[in-house]
From TrEMBL:
Lineage: Bacteria, Bacillati, Bacillota, Clostridia, Halanaerobiales
Keyword field contains Metal-binding: no
Claim: Oxidoreductase is one of the keywords in the record: no
One GO process term, biological-process aspect: chromosome segregation
Name of the protein in its database record: Chromosome partitioning protein, ParB family
One Gene Ontology term of the molecular function aspect: DNA binding
One GO CC term on file: chromosome
Domain ParB-like N-terminal: 4-95
UniProt family annotation: Belongs to the ParB family.
Pfam family, one: HTH_ParB
Amino acid sequence: MKYKEILLRNIESRPEQVRQDFSDEKIDSLAKSIAEVGQLQPIIVQKKDNHYLLIAGERRLRAVKKDKKEKIAAVILEEEISAEKFRQIQLIENLQRQDLNPLERAVSINKFMEANKLSKKDAAEKLGVARTTLTLWLNILEMKEKYQKEVLKEDSPVTLSHLSLAHGLASKSGDPSKANQLLDAVIKHNLSRKETQAVIDLFYRYLHLPVEEAVAAVLLKRERMKMKDYWDKGSKNNSHDSVRKLFRSFNNINDNLEEFMEVEGDLPEDEQEELLDEFLYLYQIMGILIPDLKEKSLEKMVNDIKIDSK
């Protein structure tokens, strides 16, 4: 292995380049940086007769060319490198620099594994990453193109963690459509990873509750938390406000119900009727306080909430 400056005109890019997406804007930015402070990291090339084959550093090579330079700093590998070794070096270099987008990374790792007949465990060891991390990266390949593109968008709520949760849901339920339903909800309602996990927990806790109903429950909780924050802030200025006291009472009931559902799950049959009577009484009182409730049946109110969450 040698280190020296070599002529740009003697460098040839190999066709099996790992990285495929080259942003002109980012290359321009890198070119300006190199022009200002110099090339901080050499490219890696393989000596081949009277020229060099590029192993790693395509972005740096393009940036230096934009800066109108004739030479570039390079680490030169003089021994013969197999196609598999070439891809391994490229992968490790790009993974360390985080130069690949999630899809490029997954495609390249998958090709590397197939070419070398490697398990996830073996591939993780050769690439120097945890097996759980490698699995997370590869999940994107099992998703529809629609969701793969979502991960690449800067303003999309979908992350690799969301894909991992959706993949797990599809595997555990044996129904790939569940993953699509979940990810569609993530996109539509901007669900965080925590909210997405809450949807999955509800799905399994209540005998495979429909995904859309689990999403509606999570969205309802989101809105309740917003209102809780609103009233909590307002109570600092007026702690004796009767409406705020009433709201806090309802909030305490909701918290207790959620805690019971998480711990116990089901209400004993002999207590269901008593609780239902209390709920109906509360519903009648609310109908007096809020006249609009009188115009809607309880069933219609529940259906309206489900429709609003879709």
